[in-house]
Amino acid sequence: MKNNQLEFIKLIDNALEIANEMQLQEITNQEMLDNLLNKLTIIKNQVINDNLSTSQKGATLGLSRQVSDWVESLESPLLTAVSKIDKYYQQKY
Fold this sequence. Notes:
Layout: H1 3-25, H2 30-48, H3 63-68, H4 77-92
Helix pairs in contact: 1-2, 1-4
């Protein structure tokens, strides 16, 4: 596995860990959190299998926008984590 894939997986794992903690604490919209967990898992599997599509003209995965629509605080650790994923994808893919 390439270094950029390993780094990307670390970012995704961090977001998954934060989202799982939030799910256990039931502190946010569970349906939206479940959707995010599913999306992160799909993206992680695509990275592992080396079949994640490339960013088109600087496009992101849309995770930051998705989370900012329902997260309680714009300073949320989850929003920070998914923003890092979007930025990494935009720069490296």
